[in-house]
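#onboarding

Welcome to the new folks! Below is a worked example of what a typical request in this channel looks like: someone posts a single protein sequence, and someone else replies with the predicted structure as tokens. Don't worry about understanding the tokens yet, we'll cover that in week two.

Example request:
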Amino acid sequence: MRAIRKKSPYSMDANLLHISYEGGVLEEPYTEAEDDMWRWSVSQKKHLMKRNI
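Example response:
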């Protein structure tokens, strides 16, 4: 049985140098990035949590 995945509210385009994301939810400057967007790095929140341990 296949797992049902939530459709992403943005599109992702990856190449050797970077990943670019586009989409309606990302166009709002006050919207925080979702955790699944951090593919090659970590969010600032997670980084600070690791530093404080």
